[in-house]
Amino acid sequence: MTDSEGGDRRRDGPSDVSGTDAPDEAEGTREPSNGRTDRGEEPPSGVVGWLKWFWTADRGWVIYLRDVTTSVTAVLVIGLLLFAISGIWPPMVAVESGSMEPNMERGDLVFVVDNDRFTPENAPVHDGQSTGVLPTDRAAEAGYTKFNGYGDVIVFQRDGRRDLTPVIHRAVLWVEDGENWYDRANPAYMGSASNCEQLNHCPAPHAGFITLGDANPAYDQHRGLSAPVKPEWIIGTAEVKVPYLGNVRLFFSELSSSSVPAQPAAADGQSASVDGPENTTITAGSQTNATATTGHTRPAI
What is the pLDDT of residues 187-227, one digit of tens each? Predict the structure, then answer.
């Protein structure tokens, strides 16, 4: 009886191992079947299912990709919102030099708005439409200030040329075509000019704005930076500045420009002296203007 039971027991032992434990081990080594993931999860189905899986999965590479996607999306949303408000792209420019100090300094990031978006009262009218810019003389009468000074600060294309870098300076006067604007100008910013004939762009060759960098000794037009700024040359008006943030943009601009071969010096190295509160020499190709960077360019402003 004992032997028989032992024999049965011996026969049952191997049968239990091979019939129960072995198949379990084999199943553990086989690849997942029936479309399951390696964690035994049902794979997502449909667009909604995959999106839900992407935003809830805890795998390392998914988390990394999710963080990158979230960051890029946030930047795009903010950019689109700023574009919707400003009406121009890009809506931000970085100040690169000191011609607008102390009201704008190198490294400031400036938010620019299309001058047709928020039209101030008493803005000059040209060809039946408001220019959307209030110059210093009219702003002083209305008590209208921007960046600690009377009048709008504008970003404009010099002489309307897209191949030149934009400028960010203050609009100080509106002049009509053929106007002798010498008597309306501030003598402190006309150098040694004693009459209209000695003042560059006087009489005015066309209607436009006379502009000035807050830290500069003379009007841009007298210095030869640009003719009176036509409304269509204006990119927008500066509205808000954020200190230091523009340094990031400037860093990459300088990095990219350092890899470009240096350009030849201006012909004959010509320079023009401007007399004013501070005598400065303006050398072609090295004008001391505040510079805004937009897109892939480095506007000298």
Answer: 999 999 999 999 999 999 999 999 999 999 999 999 999 99
The sign of the CA dihedral 213, 216, 218, 220 is negative
Is the model more confident about 61 or about 126? 126
When mean pLDDT is compared across 18-32, 40-54, 247-261, the lowest value belongs to: 18-32
Q: Examine residue 102 and say whether the peptide bond preceding it is cis (omega within 30 degrees of 0).
A: yes
pTM summary value: 0.65
Residue by residue, DSSP assigns the chain as -HHHHHHHHHHHHHHHIIIIIHHHHHHHHSPP-TT--TTSPPPP-HHHHHHHHHHH---HHHHHHHHHHHHHHHHHHHHHHHHHHH-SSS-EEEE-SSTTTTTS-TT-EEEEE-TTTSPPTT--EETTEE-S---HHHHHHHT-EETTEES-EEEE-GGG-TTSPPEEEEEEEEE-TT---TTTS-GGGSTT--SGGGSTT-S-SSSEEEEE-TT-SS-HHHHTS-SSB-GGGEEEEEEEEETTTHHHHHHHHHHHHHTSPPPPPPGGG-EEEE-SSS-EEEETT-----BEE-TT-----
Contact residues for 158 (Cβ-Cβ < 8 A; gap 6+): 164, 165, 166, 167, 225, 226, 233
pLDDT on residue 187 = 95
